[in-house]
Amino acid sequence: METVAEALRVRAKKALANGEVDRIFAWKRGEFWYDATPAVFETAGETDELLWDSFCVANLSKYLVGAQKQGLTVGVFLKGCDALAFNQLLKDNRIARESVRVFGVPCPGMVDPDKLKRAKLHRGLSQVKRRGDALLLCGKKGEQEAAARDYLYEKCLACRPPNPVVYDELMAELHM
Fold it and tell me: Residue 15 and residue 44: Cα distance in Å, rounded?
């Protein structure tokens, strides 16, 4: 996922630097290792904080309504499930399509931190990396591998569209 994260940072930086958009909606690191929080990036320099990892579960579509009211042109990174919400906002005339640049991000599924806690795998963790169908749990005890499927949100296990159904630009290869 780190390769995709870097592609997101580069694209966000470019979109802000060349004036293509006024703002970028994405994620950044929160207080804890499992905390990916929604973020608004207003300058190219801020995009170094942009995050894409197994905890970017927050749907960024809902923030578009407020930006619409301010008359901003925004770029937004959307996963498959987020793109469904985006389409509903369009259908309900809550946002104007021409004011949004959609960067589609194929999603392998998001990790549920509560499942890691219940399995007692969270102690001493500093980072969780995705490696194909496996999670690499990194922390004080070194690295431990676990099956990603065992720790995904239930909604991700049943996800119909892991790939965005609408986008202006695709940020990674589609999941099959």
Answer: 8
CA distances from 101 to 14, 18, 24, 141, 150 (A): 13, 13, 9, 42, 34
Q: Give the Cα separation of 29 and 11 in Å (integer).
A: 18
* Distance between CA atoms of residues 13 and 43, nearest Å: 8
* Alpha-carbon distances, residue 47 vs 11, 31, 137, 141 (angstroms): 9, 18, 26, 31
Q: Is 124:140 a contact under the CB 8 Å cutoff?
A: yes
- Reported as a single tens digit per residue, the pLDDT across 112-131 is 999 999 999 888 899 999 99
Where the chain has pLDDT below 50, the residues are none
Euclidean distance between CA atoms 26 and 101, whole angstroms: 12
The predicted pLDDT at position 173 comes to 85
Phi, psi of 29 (to 5 degrees): -65, 135
